[in-house]
Design a protein that fits this description.
Blueprint (H helix, E strand, L loop, with lengths): L2 E9 L2 E10 L4 E6 L5 E7 L2 E2 L20 E2 L10 E4 L2 E4 L12 E6 L2 E7 L2 H6 L4 E10 L2 E10 L5 E3 L2 E2 L2 E3 L6 E4 L4 E3 L23 E7 L5 E5 L4 E7 L5 E7 L4 E7 L13 E3 L4 E12 L1
Antiparallel strand pairs: 1-2, 2-3, 3-4, 4-5, 6-14, 7-8, 9-10, 10-11, 11-12, 12-24, 13-23, 15-22, 16-19, 17-18, 18-21, 19-20, 20-24, 21-22
């Protein structure tokens, strides 16, 4: 049976409360840090960490480049760094605003830990809509489940996209092999998307600082194995997620395998994003399963 406890950790000059869900029989532990973007900041199997954390970024005020950030109301960076709503431009940084906010604890119980983020005058400067986000984390065996509910609390239709940006530990990029099936595979979302090859790889162009692949029409689950550290990670998702992204950066021991609902400029593109009417809600579910091979 799962156990949920709290603990406090000090990072830099800051102290954070964390919620820890453990499955003793499976030897797994899932760590959630509400104040740090409401996100997963640890997932271990028999004490071995599968989630990559960048320090000192953990305790900095800038965007988290570690853990499992929640992407809302957009994925990646919209054209010109702005969303256009009713003819007015609103600044929006890469991946939205949810991962920059401290989330509140809504409930803790047998169904897991539920966190909440609500719109505020600050969020409405960037995204002029009234909303509530509820994210629930739970753990069963070697699988962590993440449920997100988006609620339109306002009086006008609310456009958005969402996704996640999990950073997984990796020995070296050349040790990682992906098992992914999708319709298209490219390095950006501009123009016609090329058909995906039979085998998806994440190679780096000479002189480039990072490697990226945008995948559309993903047939979940998608997984990778790392022959260097023996990790296998599987990301599964419901029909809310149609896209995926692979990303890796030079000199860093991680690989990102990300489920997305949209892409970089989708909130500005007709028919490429979700729209909730007043008082409507949208739910989504995805999961991370960790193994040792």
């Amino acid at each position: 049976m799962n156990q949920i406890t709290t603990r406090y950790v000090t990072e830099g000059d800051a102290c954070y409360e964390q919620y820890v869900i453990t499955d003793p029989a499976a030897g797994t532990e899932l760590v959630i840090t509400p104040e740090r973007g409401g996100m997963i900041t640890g997932f271990t199997l028999n004490g071995e960490e599968y989630i990559w954390v960048r320090r000192p970024n953990f305790s900095e005020c800038n965007r988290p480049r570690f853990g499992v950030p929640i992407l809302f109301p957009s994925c990646s960076n919209p054209d010109g760094g702005v969303h256009i709503f009713e003819g007015k431009a609103y600044p929006m940084e890469t991946h939205g605003l949810a991962d920059l906010c401290a989330w509140q604890v809504d409930s803790v119980g047998p169904d897991g830990v539920t966190l909440m983020l609500q719109s505020s005058p600050l969020t409405k400067f960037l995204y002029p809509f009234d909303f509530t986000l509820l994210v629930t984390y739970n753990l069963q065996g070697r699988t962590a489940t993440i449920d997100l509910t988006v609620i339109n609390d306002g009086d006008k239709p609310m456009p958005f996209s969402f996704g996640y940006h999990p950073y997984f530990m990796a020995s070296k990029l050349e040790n990682v092999a992906f098992d992914i099936h999708c319709a298209t595979c490219s390095e950006n979302a501009k123009g016609e998307q090329p058909a995906a090859p039979e085998t998806i790889t994440l190679t780096r162009k000479e002189g480039a600082a990072d490697s990226i692949r945008l995948l559309t029409g993903v047939q979940f689950p998608m997984s990778f194995t790392d022959k260097g550290n023996g990790h296998k990670v599987t990301v599964d998702a419901d029909e809310s997620f149609t896209n995926g992204v692979l990303w890796q950066q030079d000199a860093e021991n991680f690989v990102c395998m990300e489920p997305w609902n949209g892409w970089a400029n989708s909130v500005n593109e007709e028919g490429r994003h979700e729209v909730l009417e007043p008082d409507e809600a949208l739910g989504s579910t995805w999961s991370i399963t960790i193994d040792k091979v």
